Known about the structure:
There is one protein chain. The chain is α/β, with parallel strands linked by helices. The protein contains seven helices and 15 strands. It has an eight-stranded mixed sheet with strand order 4-12-13-9-8-5-6-7, sandwiched between helices. It has a three-stranded antiparallel sheet with strand order 2-1-3, with no helix packed on it. Strand 10 (about 215-220) and strand 11 (about 220-225) form a beta hairpin. Helix 6 (about 185-205) runs parallel beside helix 7. The protein starts with a strand and ends in an 11-residue tail after the last strand. Residues about 1-5 and about 10-35 have low confidence and may be disordered.
Amino acid sequence: MATRQTEAGTSSKRTDRRRPAKGRSPRASAAASGDTRRVQGGVATSDVVPSAHVGENALVFARILALHVPAGARVADVTFGKGVFWKQIEPGAYDVHASDIELKPSARAARPSFTYQDGVDCRALPFEDASFDCLVLDPPYMEGLYRRKTDHMAGSGTHAAFRRAYSNGRATAEAEGKPRAQPRWHDAVLDLYARAGREALRVLRAGGVLIVKCQDEVSANKQRLTHVEIITGYESLGLYCKDLFVLVRPNSPGVSRLKKQVHARKNHSYFLVFEKRSTKISSVVDLSAGELARRSSRAPRRRAQ
Ligand SMILES: C[S@@+](CC[C@H](N)C(=O)[O-])C[C@H]1O[C@@H](n2cnc3c(N)ncnc32)[C@H](O)[C@@H]1O
């Protein structure tokens, strides 16, 4: 009888009778049996999913799904864009519901088996509560794509293809119809992640997985660690950050008008994997009191009466 192992190699009391089948890697065997737990007696292998990758979104996305989302799962990709994330996924592997505020014209043809819905705002999804196993969120990640006038947006002229791929190309005020009430600059980026995160929480079933793509940015000369803001913000909603992947661009980033470099030029982005859990876990650590005080939102235990 095999004892259940944690990733650090310590055993817990739960037991598991299943062992990897001969000739199969532990991961393939676990996937085939629907069991992704690690068991004592596994073989030494380098066939594991690492946390950092150099290359394309589609490569990392496929590895994240293989690790965290079981085949056949009902998945909502609510910022589907061109569907680039899905390039390496077998057709039919998942029940994919693709939506976007403005689906790219090429999107449907590439994956005819997906269910499509155009004109869907990820902040107000037309889906029932607890109706998805997984939700994918990849909204425009930089403040330059949230401007009140189109000619102030990032990606003009020769960079127009970038703007088309990463946003719906509309000025924020134009799309919202409430120019004064909108958060600005980097706060506009966070505001979209925040509202979309709350919707994701609503439509995910308990134990469901939220995959979020983001990139840090320097905004108004300030370093804004978007991935940290999203992790701590989503944790406050009750989402547990189960995994984090770093994607490094294979090519060198260029700067068109550099006077003096102040911050490192970003050539990496993140995929964050959250799980909808009933117990909140917080990464916010308060060191100001001189001793470790982790902000926890667990309900305090009631004393026996
Ligand atoms: C970075 S792209 C997504 C790329 C996509 N993951 C892919 O694989 O091709 C961002 C997408 O978010 C969409 N978008 C922007 N605001 C949105 C909103 N409020 N609701 C839904 N989609 C939105 C844009 O139209 C754009 O297609």
